[in-house]
Amino acid sequence: QDTDAEVEAREYLNYLNKEMDRRTNLNMLAAWNYASNISEENLAKQIAVEAENARFQKEQWREMMKYPWQSYKNDDIKRQFSMFAILGSAALPDEKFIEYQKTLGDMESIYSQAKVCGFKNKTNCDMHLEPEITARMAQSRDPEELKHYWVEWHKASGAKVKHLYPKYVELANEAAVMNNFTDTAEYWLWSYEDPHFQEEIAHLWQQLKPLYLQIHAYVRRKLREKYGENIVPRKRPIPAHLLGNMWAQQWNLIYDLTTPFPGKSSVDVTPQMLHQGYTPRKMFRLAEEFFTSMNLSAMPETFWEYSILEKPKDRNNIVCHASAWDFYDGKDYRIKQCTTVSADELSTAHHEMGHIEYFQQYRDQPHIYKNGANSGFHEAVGDVIALSVQTPKHLRKIGLMEPNTVIDPEAELNHLFHVGLEKIVFLPFAYTMDLWRWDVFRGQITKDHYNCAWWKLRTDIQGVEPPVDRSEDSFDPGAKYHIVAGVEYLRYFVSFVIQFQFHQAMCEAAGQFDRRNPMSKPLHECDVYQSKEAGNLLGSMLRLGSSVPWQKAMEIMTGQGKMDASALLQYFSPLQQYLERENKRTGEYIGWTASERKCVQ
Ligand SMILES: C=C(C[SeH])C(=O)N1CCC[C@H]1C(=O)O
Ligand SMILES: [Zn+2]
């Protein structure tokens, strides 16, 4: 039974939650207007709305402190107050708040509008990251062309925001301190509600690293066979421009160069999608149908009306980096993605729609709980579905793979390897992104050695190196969206571990996995399509939002409350055995020696 004080406190929370929904709706509309139509004027409009709301939040913070909420018995009221009490950047005084948002907006604008000149057609200097440069990094098999786009992109993006980054770090840390954190690293880690979270991540990486070393050595051999020993030396870190992705974060786009059994069924459905006349809209309809087949939500009609699912033809002043948007009114949800028709982008479409599913499932939560159980949960939802979609079994079901395609153990290994190029490979990259930023926020990496510290981490942890020597004149972290947009990245490391725990739980619910006899129905062959049991299990966790600690949400989903690498390792165990056998057979050097690339301080 709530005390009178708690009854009064709850009434205040009801007001605050409703008012924050209303105000955040205005914030999101202004942010959407800027991101979809970049201009100084639209940034100023967005910042004006955000500054007004920051003022309101500071005012309410003073109001909240009149309530002795730490002494309340009601856990839910205490949880809401403790979350509302953390203002983030809104804690900054007005003019610093505005400077902080302007710095982020300017970095995002430079990144999103950066362009380079062509390698072959040197007069075409209108090539943007999406779609042109991304397409060349994925499709070119000419090391010189790949080096050109790698170097030019890093010059046109990272180097151009270098002068703004220290100011962002300084103001982010000032805000963190005003929220009673030592720095932004601690503020970011606080959201995971576990005082030992950084150590837990380090422990998970130690468990997963052996598998990464195997796929790294195997891919390096395949690249050496393709490009020769001079370009891909046997024991060296892998040159980052040869891996199919500008940041070498996922290598699935060089699947054709590295597949274990080239003759077997190709899991790359891009040609089929193009042949069948797939459009971006059809890709998102396909994703929606998967969710509804499991008794999860369809997209509201306004989603199809307001979303931007293709890059506008006539202009480039748009943030193309894919994103999902909640407008906090229980009905307006949107995706903005400069979609091109490909298998990789079909996965991204599922990823983004997973965010929308989460938004819809927790729509009845109070404002403060309209978040993922932690940020990694939000990133995992769509990916879990995509794990089912990309099974050969499912691709045949939806007509993207010939019905008579032979799916034998070698074809299954090809599929596992393809998923490994996207999931195993990504882990050290995601880890590096925030290992670098934690040290920057903590003052261990200062601006005079931002770049060389970045490459030391990238070489030590990920085993990749830049295609050319670097120096502190460059700012290569700034060539990656999440760095210039100030988006925390550990969420993706968490997602790529827990999505296999969710997949395992949902496959069990769907009767397609048996934890007591794991190889009787291999986890990587599971497809939860049309399983109401799997959908209801997922939905029951999504509806909670952040109303309970993520460990509780994990327990509801998987029966236990911890992050656990064993589901991922179980999923990839046939691949790990194959890679270990193959690397031994070819005498591969596991790991890498020091890079010969210099970084001039
Ligand atoms: C698709 C999104 C929007 Se939340 C994204 O940023 N992702 C999804 C995978 C990792 C990360 C990236 O692209 O770096
Ligand atoms: Zn996401």
Task: Describe the structure in your own words.
With 601 residues, the protein is mostly helical. It is 58% helix and 3% strand. The chain contains 25 helices and eight strands. It has helices at 4-35, 40-64, 75-84, 94-113, 129-139, 143-156, 158-161, 165-178, 184-190, 197-227, 255-258, 270-275, 280-293, 301-306, 343-361, 375-389, 392-397, 409-423, 426-441, 450-462, 481-484, 490-509, 532-542, 550-558, 566-585; strands at 115-116, 127-128, 238-239, 323-326, 333-336, 464-465, 470-471, 599-600. Strands 1-2 form a two-stranded antiparallel ribbon. Strand 4 (323-326) and strand 5 form a beta hairpin. Helix 1 runs antiparallel to helix 2 (40-64), helix 19 packs antiparallel against helix 22 and helix 22 (490-509) packs antiparallel against helix 23. The model has no long low-confidence stretch (mean pLDDT 97). It binds seleno-captopril and zinc ion. The site of zinc ion has 3 residues, from helix 15. Zinc ion binds next to helix 15.
Keywords:
two-stranded parallel sheet; binds zinc ion; mainly alpha; binds seleno-captopril; 25 helices; two-stranded antiparallel ribbon; 601 residues; 3% strand; globular
Overall pLDDT confidence: 97
Q: Helical stretch count?
A: 25
Shape annotation: globular
Q: In percent, how helical is the residue content?
A: 55-70%
Bound molecules: seleno-captopril, zinc ion
Q: Structural class of the secondary structure composition?
A: mainly alpha
Spans of 5+ residues with little confidence (pLDDT < 50)?
Answer: none
Question: How would you sum up the major sheet?
Answer: 2 strands, antiparallel
Widest beta sheet: strand line-up: 1-2
Measured between the Cα atoms of the first and last residue, the distance is: 64 Å
Please count the beta strands (DSSP E, at least 2 residues each).
Answer: 8
Oligomer: single chain
Q: What percentage of amino acids are in beta strands?
A: under 5%
Rg over CA atoms, rounded to whole Å, is 24 Å
